[in-house]
Predict the structure.
Amino acid sequence: MSRTRIDPSLLNNLSSSLNMGSNKIVSLANGTAASDAAAFGQIPTITQWTSYTPSIGGVGTPSVVNFRWRQVNDTVYINGVFRCGTTTASIAYVTLPNSFTISYDATHGLSTFGALVGNYFVSINGGLGAGSNLGFMWADGSNPSGLFFINAGATSGTPNGIPGNGFGASLNYVFVDGWFIKA
């Protein structure tokens, strides 16, 4: 077996700068194997958390409203907190950020009947005292731009929302954590 000797001076050229001149990448082809490079459409969309101010129904004029959202591919995550104003018998809801609407495409597991898409916690007087409760966030076809609150312990009623006065007395804090597939 014969061996070929490589001139060491050739290796020095590998560490020098590469000048592409007018050559540049103008497109990427879709990969066909797991080892292929990702195309632009295959790179996931992941945004930073961004503040937003939702409309909140059924709780009078809320205060201490602090919500944020981020997108990971086609899923948008929200979390936030608000303090109830004078609660009413109107259905409680929170609107979505950035004028998003919910996709009810069956391939995403949501139908117009609805789905659980998060949870909430009501803190009585800022703590975990008697009357504090936990519930779920609900999305359904009746309001594709908002999420409803439903009571985890409900034994009757419909799954499309509880009234704001279901949060108990005014001035209670409501913590929200939810997600949805954007249309």
